[in-house]
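Input.
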Amino acid sequence: MFFTVPTLLTWARIVCIPLIVGVYDLPLDSLGPGMRNLIATVLFVVFALTDWLDGYLARKLNQTSSFGAFLDPVADKFLVCSTLLVLVHLQRVDALVALVIIGREIAISALREWMAQIGASRSVAVHMLGKVKTTVQMIAIPFLLLDRTVLGLIDTRMWGTVLIYIAAVLTIWSMVYYLRKALPEIRAKAR
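Output.
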């Protein structure tokens, strides 16, 4: 199931990364202030929504596959990590916050891979805490990309900054949760 509709949507999240990064290199100044931010925000939101849509369609069309289950979190991590690097470059996210989030993604991915190899992947299955962390990130990132006051009321940079720090705390919390769940298996295999 390499080219099903859900898998193509997942691939789209990976393909969009150069578009989001490239927006900041295109000569868009003539379109007005903040146009780069608006385009990057819209691209991020549209492609982030494909994460929900591809899962829904995979179940609805009965097109779930092990390849799709592998590619989906990889696409999410690529999208989030590359956008965080853009935000660090734009000085809208502290490098330490980005390092915590990206480092956790690498560590938990490696842990899940190892746990799958030893037949204990259930102990590090996705938990609600990880889903909440992802949701907070997916709200914080477009706020930080947009970087403006909306309707004269909502300072997206301020709210995005608050949310990305909350996401960083949830990131550490969820990593500790997954490591504690895996610890008995790690101890058993270390003997």
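The longest helix spans residues 156-190.
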